Amino acid sequence: MNESTRPVRTRFAPSPTGMLHIGGVRTALFSWLYARHHQGSFVLRIEDTDRERSTDEATQVILDGMKWLGLNEDEGPFYQTQRMDRYKEVIQQFLREGKAYRCYCTKEELEEMRARQMAAKQKPRYDGTWRNRTDVREGVEPVIRFKNPLDGVVVVNDVIHGKVVFENAELDDLIIARSDGTPTYNFCVVVDDWDMGITHVVRGDDHLNNTPRQINMLMALSATPPVYAHVPMILGADGAKLSKRHGAVSVLQYQEEGYLPEALLNYLVRLGWSHGDQEVFTMDEMIALFDINNVNKSASAFNPEKLLWLNQQHIMKASASALAHGLRDQFSRRGIDVDDQSLLEAIANAQRERAKTLKEMAQNSVFFVRDFDSYDEKAAKKNLTAEAQPILAALETALQNLDEWQASAIHEVINAVAAQFNTGLGKVAQPLRVAVCGGAVSPPIDATLAIIGKSRTVARLQKAQRHVAGQ
RNA sequence: GCUCCCAUCGUCUAGUGGCCUAGGACACAGCCCUCUCAAGGCUGGUACGCGGGUUCGAGUCCCGCUGGGAGCGCCA
């Protein structure tokens, strides 16, 4: 059997019990990239067998998150809760073939067994009491356990970790169906990966220990195990487990905070993987260059500063229309509705080098689309002074008389006023900036005025002069 | 406790026995550019966890230790 000739099929199989956070997104990304790189298929499967903890809300967050990120599935989403008949069928098959058996131990008895083993400094595991019994116990609904091989080894040839060997003697007979008849995780994964023809399983390395059991079940089904790639985990910025404080929030939070999906993905792809000295990757470059075989074995810490830097890099590269779209969204989150696409694009182009997030861009761009009531106190105190008054007046007149309202022409006017007062550009541009923007920070003043427009500029210059006079 | 995994600057990483007096990036500091803020350019400091081997030679291979992580559920 030649694995390499099979079309690649990968999957992302989150359980909707919590938020889709960056750890999950990274395994999804690696899985997706691998499929895209090899022109294969990417399957989305929702593992919702735990009905108590699964919620529709979490499922929706996963779907929305994947959509926002652009990690589109070729098949699915499939839901395990809709495949119950299939799982039960395989369980019956196992029972019939003697590959599984009913175990009548109660939860209490199992807990007791675990406690005893722990006390004896042993690895807690099921002792196989019911493995060879054929009787039944009245009053106890049995669970069904898989008959794991008693000896020999299971070899996992992981593309990231290499050869990992597990002794069957270390494994016990895991429960594949609860006493209420519902199948459990490790079993469903096996049936699904097989049924869905998954060739490459990319998942967090917290699953490495589950792999030998899954391989044993696959063997019992006479199925060919997939290729496994257990990717290292992501740690919080403090090197400890990912927590809510850094990163363990819904991916949609990043959308709200003004991150570009390609920036977040670029950040995540560089965690545990690299391509020479390259830091910034477009989606196409990621697909072309990413190779699961080159992924690191060690866990990596989440670094919000670098994410921020990458976001800015992508903002600088992004198309004006994409930026405008995101900016419009950020404005509306602030209760400001702007529909003028060309205005949004102009603002985005003026701000793209000075915003780390779209949220920050919107925050610093309100003066473009709304008049302000007050000035930044420090900036006004320094720049809107009696000394600046004649300069503001001269600017008002000169700009009022300017017919060609474009950055280059505006620039000439400002230069002329500076020359007229025999002073540097700073003495003219800063008061003008504060008068028109309300604060001391903005894109280049000529470009800024070009966007704000003539009538608004002139009105704001007049208002600034009244402000100076009123002091 | 048992099993498995991991180990280069603060962080992400390059490095597959000599090209390593260890390279790049983020962050930090300084300088340049400059109408503000940025962007950009230049410069600087900081790392192979420890101990044994193997070898002419080890960040790179082997062993041990230490440290970190995961799993050991009628959770996924």
Mean model confidence by pLDDT: 93
**Main beta sheet strand tally, sense and closure:** 3 strands, parallel
Q: Total number of β-strand segments?
A: 12
Strand content: 5-15%
Low-confidence stretches: none
Percent range of helical residues? 40-55%
- Shape descriptor reads elongated
Spatial order of the strands forming the largest sheet: 1-2-3
Radius of gyration: 31 Å
Q: Specify the number of helices.
A: 20
Instruction: Give the class from helix and strand content and strand pairing.
Output: mainly alpha
N- to C-terminal distance: 87 Å
Would you kindly provide a written description of the structure presented here, covering whatever features stand out?
This protein is mainly alpha-helical and 471 residues long. Helices cover 46% and strands 11% of the residues. The chain is built from 20 helices and twelve strands. Strands 1-2-3 form a three-stranded parallel sheet, covered by helices on one side. A three-stranded antiparallel sheet has the order 4-5-8. The longest helix has 16 residues. The protein starts with 8 loop residues before the first strand and ends with a helix. It binds one RNA strand of 76 nucleotides through helix 4, strand 7, helix 5, strand 12 and helix 10.
